[in-house]
Each structure stands twice: as C-alpha cells, then as structure tokens.
Amino acid sequence: MSTTSTTQERPVATATATSGAGNFLLGKVAQHFANSPVSFEIRTPDGVFHPFGPGPAEFRVLLHNAAGQRALTSLDEGRFAEAYLAGDIDLEGDMLKPFALRSGMGDSHLVTYLWRFVQPLLFGQVKTNRAAISSHYDIDPKFFLSLLDPITPCYTQGVYESDDEGLDVATTRKFQYCFDQLGLKAGDHILEIGPGWGAWFEFASARGVKCTGISISQASIDFLKGRAKELGRDWELIFSDLLAYKTDRKYDAIVIMGVIEHLPQYDKVLAKFQELIKPNGKIFLDGSACTKKYELSSFMVKYIYPGNHSFLVLHDFLDKLAQTPMKMLECYSDRWSYYLTFRQWAINFDNNKDFVIKNFGEFNYRRFRLYLWGAAYEFYGRSLECYRLILHMPGDDFSVGR
Questions:
Q1: pLDDT average, residue stretch 338-355
Q2: Which residues are registered as beta bridge partners of 212?
Q3: Quick one: 125-392 is in which CATH superfamily?
Q4: Number of CB atoms found within 10 A of residue 241's CB
C-alpha cells in the first residue's frame, strides 16, 4: 500500500504539531501526539492537512465530519473504531502504523467489559460460546475465503521459514509438522476441534487418516459437508461444543488449531482431552497468546469476538496441565509467523475490497479490516505471542515422549 501523500495541491496547516500544538482545531490531539515517533497526517473536515511526527507521513487519518472529529479528539480507541466503522473516519497509507499509537489512547467501556462475564453466568458457558462463535463465523464462507489463502484456507497461522514465502507454503509446513509430531499414520482416527474450512482435514485424509470434527458454527459444518462430497471423503461432522461433546470413542490424536482462544476454562478443556484421547495419544494445540487473561479491546469484544474470549495465557494453561496426568512434549513460540500470516490475510482482504463490500456490505469490510491489520500489528509489536504445543497422554508404551 502506498504510504506517500497525494501529489495534488492541498491546504496544509502552517503550524506543525511540535511548534504550535494549540494553534488549530485539533489542539488536544496535537498536544497529545506532539512527540509522536510515527509520522502521520490528519485531514480535518475543512480539507486542511495537519502533520505530526518528524518525517513524511506514513499514514493519514481522514475526518469526514464533526462526528469523526469528536471521536478522534476523545482519544478513546473504542470511539475511534466506532467512527471508522460508521465511515466518519478513514485511514490511508501503511495500515500497520496507526496501531502504534494505541498505547497513547484510552479504552474505558465498563458496560462492554462487564457484559462479557455476565453472559456465561446468566446463560451458561456453552450457550455463550455458541452465540459468540455464531456471531463471528456464521457468515457465508466466501467472506472468510476472501482473506484466507486460496490454496490452503486455514484460519490459523502458517509456519514460516522466510518472510517472502507464500502462505500456502507456510500452512502446508505447519500441517506436515502437526502430522509428524502427532505420529499419525494411515488408519488413525483424529478429532479436530473447530475444523473451519477443512484445509487440515484435506491434508490428513489424503494420507489415510480418518477425520471427525466438532464445531458450533453451522456455516462451517454445512461448508465441510459440501466439500467432503466434492472430494469423496467420509469426514464425520458433529455440531457440538467441546464442553458438551459426549462419546465413548477414544481418538488417536486431537487437533485444536487456533480455537483455545474461545475456550478459556482450561481445567474443563483438559478434562475433556483426557476423556477423548487414547493412552499414548497426542494433542496438537496452538493459539495466539498474551500474559493477562481476558485482555481484549472494546472493539474486539463488540465486533469480532464477543463473550469471554481470551488469548491463551500460557502460565495459566500449564498450571492446569500440571494437575492432570498429561505431559507437554513441546512448546514453541512462533510469534513472527502469526504476524506474517495476519499481514497476508489483511493484504488479501484489501485486495478483495470490492467483492467484500458488494456481497457483505461496507460495515463488514471495515470491521474486519480494522481487526486484521490491528492483529498483525499486535504480533509485530510483541503485544501478542503465538505458541504451539504437543501434549501427551501417558500409557503403557514408555518409549513415547522420551
């Protein structure tokens, strides 16, 4: 994306942010960002551009009306996001850079925060999960396919060896890693929790592995049924929350890619793993992570992941794991791969802007654009981590996990 200013003549404020913070309409904002390390411009509704920072603008904030201006001058990231969703504000240029300024803004929305924890108390965790997953995933699959890799449409990170690799290459590497570390072979039966759009199922079933998937996204289940029919696969697809899933069956392996963020009750999740895995079976688990439970912006809670969604908190998960007979064989940090993945998703999504707006509306384009670029920056800036884990249920074979 271009980060240079337009070449046409335009009015520019005569006072810069550092030399005259109170001399124009955005005095409060100018003072707040007077020493910004990121260079940017704000265009006020009168068409005047106001420069900030030490060099050429890397991005621009376009204020279209008074509502957009009020949102910006509030210095509240939740109100800024709302104004962007409403079209009162636009962002142009390098879309990673605006998020570098988030730490200088507030996000005080107590009702939104409290409702996350009231929901499961009122309706139960399973119903809360179902409502949250439905709000995010139950949209025509073409929406998600507009941002995912077209060859391997997987909604979790790939595993990159170099920054210039294609996402399909990185995702296939992840699948091979998962297959090898679980010790899978033809005839094994796996359970995937949240199979999404079937990319992992296609990889595993092509190698003779029997696949069962549980999901509480009806759109995902319907898509996978159609995809299985196209490919001639006998995937078993069950509409169920993990915490409510009941079966006498034991699986050779369990795969949960990027779903632990929706399941913050680690003790209950681990109890389910113990019910479902065979002795000497293994579990692949990965997810985006941070150090504080339930840390999420008001924008994310309202428009992307409602309910009591939480990034993986590794020390909490490991504490609960230590209270089970299961063991961790491997834990690997791969933050940069998730940054590269989110960046590619965001680029794909922007490239498909016209298709998305035509078929799903500008609101859905704007909310996911903000989410994708924002998440990319959080991984880039180390606010988020990414871990992949291999867990093992000990059995009679003492050579496993040595």
A1: 98
A2: 191, 236
A3: Vaccinia Virus protein VP39 (3.40.50.150)
A4: 20
